[in-house]
Amino acid sequence: MTTNASIDLSNQDSEVRTTVKRTSKHRLILRRFCRNKQAVIGVAIVLLMIIYAVFAKYLTEWDYDEPDFLNLKQPPSAEHWLGTDIVGGDLFVLSARGLGRSLMIGFIASIGITVIAAFVGAAIAYVEGWFETVGTWILDMLLVVPTFFLLAIMVSKSSGTSGWIWLTFALMLFGWIGYARVLRSIAQSLRDREYVAAARYMGVKPLTVLWRHMIPNLGSILIIHTVLGVVYAVEAETGLSFIGFGITPPDTSLGVLIKSGSATLMTAPWMFLTPALLLLALCYSMTKIGDGLRDALDPSSESGGKA
Amino acid sequence: MTMTHPAELGDTRESATEPVLSVRDLTVSYGSEAGPVRAVRGVSFDLLPGRTLAIAGESGSGKSAASLAIMGLLPDSAVVGGSVRLDERELLRLNDREMSSVRGLEMSMIFQDPLSALTPVFTIGQQIAEALDTHQDLSRGQVVKRSMELLDLVGISDPAARLKAYPHQFSGGMRQRVMIAIAIANDPKVLIADEPTTALDVTIQAQVLDVLKLAQRETGAGVVMITHDLGVVANVADDVMVMYAGKPVEHGTVDSVFDAPQMPYTMGLLAAVPRPDRSTSGPLVPIEGNPPSPVILPPGCPFAERCPIAVDQCTEAEPALVTHGGPNAHDAACIRADEIVEQGLKYTDVYPIPELPPREANVARAERATVLEVKDLKRHFELSSGMLRRKTGTVRAVDGVTLDIRQGETLALVGESGCGKTSTLLEIMQLKQPMNGRIVLMGRDVSELGAHQRRKLRSDLQIVFQDPMAALDPRMPVYDVIAEPLKAQGWTKKAINERLGILMDLVGLNPDHVDRFPEQFSGGQRQRIGIARALAIEPSLVVLDEPVSALDVSIQAGVINLLESLQARLGVSFLFVAHDLSVVRHVADRVAVMYLGRIVEIGDVESIYTRPRHPYTAALLSAAPIPDPQVERQRQRIMLSGELPSPTERISGCRFRTRCPTYKMLPEADRAVCEAEEPDLVKEGETDQQRACHFPMEIK
Predict the structure, then answer these.
(1) What count of Cα atoms within 13 Å lies in the side-chain half-sphere of residue B101?
(2) CB–CB of B471 and A300 under 8 A?
(3) For residues B163 and B123, is the Cβ–Cβ distance under 8 A?
(4) Model-level pTM greater than 0.80?
(5) Residue B108 β-bridge partners
(6) Best of A201, A221, A297 to disrupt the B interface by mutation (most B CBs within 10 Å)?
(7) Which residue of A has its CA nearest to B531?
(8) Please, what sign has the CA dihedral across residues B633, B636, B640, B642?
(9) Do A2 and B519 lie within an 8 Å CB cutoff?
(10) Is the distance from CB of B13 to CB of B30 less than 8 angstroms?
């Protein structure tokens, strides 16, 4: 909706000003983002989860790798706020540790995938000619590579506490290819837009055009992907953990916790519910943040015209 | 030469008094996030058989919504009120099934875009047959016979063969003829045409309008013509209804409305359009401001905000559409209409005439510096197909164009779509060695430039695009949009800030609005932003690619005035590409007429418009509609047969001879000259005019 009746065309005779003041673009975006209540709640949830993941271990006497052998599979109590698992691990700290791992893996992998895919996709689309042909061909070839297999091999070679770094790296390395192809075709349609032509005709350098016009205009797609990418990465991590290739004890993650909790779902539901609810809250808040960001960045969306 | 008298075709007004279609107080509203959109707010009219009612208005005035409501084609989410009676039958109460038996039989519609209105997977014959079979019980033989009659009627030659053709084998004008054939297949009582010629070139538009008149005469149908083009209204209509913000503001016979408009809005519309048949050197009269949003309408007259003669009373209550006296009595919705009629006010009395800065002292053209010189420019595209990329043809998009532009002048490039105007522009904008020929900008041959020099030279050449929305990055605030060329040329931040303030003032925008995004501006304002960007680094030449054709007429006038005043103030040259010949006459100093990749006539605008020597120029000019019903009725048109041939075709000798009216009249010996030799541009005596024709038209 363009509600611009308030802009007065006949403003020519207002006092002549030689310089202009401007509110920065980021402030505008922030203002628009804050208007979306659900997105703000989403940010609050994510912030709370980060704080929880970082500071939980200072709140109780228990540590994630220090099981309480006197309390096995106990429901929540004053001593263990969220109960314990079958080996007596305190779920309050275990969940915090697992959540932290999953957040790290999810965010790093997802942002990495998006950045690589956006640059490769947009660059292949922007530069016409042989570069495009060869680039597209290479992308097609990479799609044939059995990524899950390679991923499993790569992660299983590593172990211990550094395993999650390898997992993140592997998810990044194999996750961007299909997405770069999708972005290439979207960027191709952007390339033919008149404002890109206009920038070229102004003598703007190719990399600047790529950075200033092509990538921001892929914006909402990139944002949605980054958000869903977090979910994708967490899911991939859960799947790999389930078949024994992902995070391995003593390290833990939401995936590991959900897996072990699902085995005792009927007898000790708290072991499953805590990590599962955390995962749910994570996905919900990421989606809402994504929506809010898209509305704030995209001038054609609902909140446009009010800033 | 094929001359037709439009008046003969149109004069079939039966004196029937029973209206075939009667609309009373029609309203349409949609829900939207921002609140209900009241698209149509009370439209009433009677349509007599054989008469044509034109509904004119700018985009968003509700004219299309009204026509769709009459046809029952609006989505269910739209709320329609009032009454639509077709021969005493209330249509608004019918359900979709019952409406289907009315649509196509008693009432049919012709849409704007003939490309999407025909199904690509069925032949033309199948689609006409579908229209016939739905409503009539005919044998196969009868259907084919009737289909051939219909195609013949709308002027498609060899109908038997064409029935088996698919829509993509037809050009735009031909498709629109097929649409008309389908619409009249069942002899409807009412034909609704929604902008039927807007997507077509002027030469084709003239043909299609004639076919439409012929179809109306054959069927005796009442026609509702929806259009924004007042020239088309003057050409076809008997009555006209002008709509503004969902409401009719003036309604009467076409002569009375055009001769003595009573509502300031109509006056403004008529004054804002330049005329192709008159040389106007003064500024056009724009209507300031923008139409109100259909969501938040002011309590009074919706036009009051933009009306120069509005009084306090105007903002209190919305005036009703009532008849005002005088010899040209008709309906108008304006509380000051009586005053306007009594005092015989013209638009010059109502609207303040904007002042344009005087143009530079007249230095003879030959003494001014040459900004751009293009010599024998060619651009061919190879067509290839199949696995092995076999060459199957060559598109000669630009095939030997020579022109030059001097400092401070405007050269307009005109021609039908597909004639190579845009390809010529793009070739110039590339600033690279062309396939053939030379491009010299500011005395520098572009083929000799290195990458760095080319970037530097770009500050002398800028472009304004047709679609002001597509040309501005929607994600950048106006500040960044206008600053982009300055940054590209390495300006400092402080210098940019200063320049921005000057530029925003220059194009008539509020400098405080630099933080807004393009989407928050109206079409005309966006085009001003595009112009500010093009002028940011003080170029010597600005290429204007159809800069006003996407704008409504009332807005268009303001942008044209701006361009003219900028040229006068800054001494910049314009290369102006347009299809609207009236705008060209108003804006340009010189005109180059293009046909199939070549310039066929070039010269100063007055000579070309008053003494065209090339038959193609003459035909183009005679096809341009003039917003004056009396002139339109007496005009003799030079009709071009057929449409622009494909640029892949190789035509020996003169390219225009396949459509040339002169060629058809020539004796055999002279025809041989046209077939054998390609004419070059030749100077016309001592004047600036040059034409490429072996047998130029006589000067009348």
Answers:
(1) 6
(2) no
(3) yes
(4) no
(5) B191
(6) A201
(7) A198
(8) positive
(9) yes
(10) no
